[in-house]
Amino acid sequence: MSNRLLQRAASLSSHVTSLRKRHRKLDSEIMQEHTRPAPDHAKLRWLKARRLVLRDQLRHYESLLKNVKPLAGHALARKGGLA
Predict the structure, then answer these.
(1) pLDDT tens, 27-52?
(2) Taking the model in full, what pTM does it have?
(3) Cα(51)–Cα(44) distance, integer angstroms
């Protein structure tokens, strides 16, 4: 069970990192579109909607990670992995 918890925590952490990178990329694309002389409002609307979806996913997975990390730490400590 402890290995599964450790793997789950690592997987969630990796997924959160990936979502953060994608969110930052969308922020950059939104800023670039805003700086154009004639921004494409449909594209901006789509980018902002996608960024909101990523934000919601980030909150969800960060919440899961917050609950799994302590469990994984306790499981590792029981195995003697933490000093």
Answers:
(1) 999 999 999 999 999 999 999 999 99
(2) 0.76
(3) 10
